[in-house]
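Chain A, query sequence.
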Amino acid sequence: MRWKTRIILTAFLVPGVVTLGVASLGVATLGAVVPDTAETAHVQSETAHAQSEAETALTQSEAGSLDIRGAWKPETYRLRSGPVHNVTGLIIFTEKDWSVLYFIVTDEGPRRGSGEGGTYTLDGDKLTFRHLYNLSGGHAVDGFEASELSMRVRPEDAADAPAEPCTITIEEDLLTIFFPSGNQITFRRSSR
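Chain A, predicted structure.
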């Protein structure tokens, strides 16, 4: 005697609460349960994905802020004065640390760039960068004068580490950071 049992994965979302219901899949033969490997793997994958989404939703709900953790690729750098530049590179956010490497690119190739990092805080849409590391410089481009190579390293407990309070928006896979200077950079999510 042999029969198959299908799984029903349910997720109940109530503001502030996420409940998942999961059952196991299997093929039974003469009273013994023998897992159906392909179906079990599919169910485990769907279950892990649903749990990950539920945990992310719960984390964001509890924290009351947007989830920026992961890697984002910069696309445009819009200056308050009007010029818009194509940029390339990567910004990465962990739970508390951030690091960015980006270049303004023209038809002539990379013209200027910056490598920065440190710690950050996020409260709702208020992102504050704490700058511990900086390496920057490059050629003149529309809106920026040429600048010599600059390097700065501060210890993690440095009292003089500059704080840069920004505002962010996330629309689907686009993150836009609005800097206090009036400039903004738009990033596209690369990975979580």
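The first strand starts at residue 2 and ends at 5. The longest helix spans residues 37-63.
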